[in-house]
Amino acid sequence: MPKYYDEKEEDGRACSGVREDFKACLMQHDCVVKEGKMPSECLKEGHCRALQTSFFECKRSMIDTRSRFRGRKGY
Fold this sequence. Notes:
Layout: H1 16-28, H2 30-33, H3 39-45, H4 49-63, H5 67-70
Helix pairs in contact: 1-4
Function: Involved in an early step of the mitochondrial complex IV assembly process.
Protein name: Cytochrome c oxidase assembly factor 5
Pfam families: Pet191_N
């Protein structure tokens, strides 16, 4: 779920909202917190898959020439 903060500093990079939520999902997941694994290992196990897909789609839409008309995906 997207997180919106009043005091959040602006990040001018593309897909920054999805990136932040994806990072938070990984760092707060039981795989990292309780089991002490690396976030990359948890990704291979399939955790936070929906946000990973959203982040990929947002980054891919930056290269897609059709995005000039449709706009970037993500938030």
